[in-house]
Design a protein that fits this description.
The chain is mostly helical. It has helices at residues 2-30, 43-67, 84-108, 136-151, 155-183, 185-193.
């Protein structure tokens, strides 16, 4: 029961740390709203529309596990993966990923955005975690979702993980196109030195 409560609390804390806190910090320091997805029909804004409901499925699984554990049977569990070592590995993944994302966000500083901000020229970050991955925050999120799948191995968490891989692949390519236009050869040179993921 304690573990069930903990995972819900962790996910809430994760959401606050990864999305809310840095957004508030950037807003206070720059006056710019870092959430830049809009209500248009573009590919970019479509990603913003579908990402939130897909990710919310993780919270639904965790809440069902807390209040009605028997209900997990309706999520097509992979019972052959429900072993202690994988669950512990999943917990290790989500904790490591959170620390990784926090470091990446600190290194991003005021360049943090949720979506692509075409109205402001943000500084190109190439040091720290950005020297080993061009997208450390997205990478951390994928590790988080892989960890959640190991904690709750079922069709829902697998769907969230796999669909997020595709969504992030599209998102980072849109960002790369934008950054190459904004920073030119500097960004192209950076891409040659550092891989998209790791």
């Amino acid at each position: 029961m304690i573990a069930n409560i903990y995972i819900v609390a962790f996910l809430i804390l994760y959401f606050l740390i990864v999305f809310i806190t840095p957004s508030i910090r950037v807003k206070r320091k720059t006056g710019i709203n870092p959430y830049v997805f809009k209500n248009t029909d573009s590919a970019h804004d479509f990603l913003g529309k579908v990402s939130a409901p897909i990710t919310s499925l993780i919270f639904i699984v965790a809440l069902v596990n807390l209040f009605y554990p028997e209900g997990l049977q309706y999520f097509a569990p992979f019972t052959w993966l429900e072993i202690s070592i994988l669950k512990y590995t999943g917990f290790a993944f989500i904790h490591f990923a959170l620390l990784w994302i926090i470091v990446a966000q600190v290194q991003m500083s005021n360049s943090w955005r949720v979506g692509i901000d075409h109205s402001a020229k943000t500084e190109l970050k190439t040091n720290g975690l950005f020297s080993v991955s061009r997208n450390p925050v997205f990478l951390g999120m994928l590790v988080t979702l892989a960890g959640v799948f190991l904690v709750f191995p079922n069709a829902i968490t697998l769907f969230v993980f796999v669909s997020s891989i595709f969504l992030f692949q599209v998102q980072v390519r849109l960002e790369e196109e934008y950054l190459s236009k904004m920073h030119g050869n500097t960004y192209i040179t950076y891409c040659k030195k550092v891989r998209r993921w790791i």
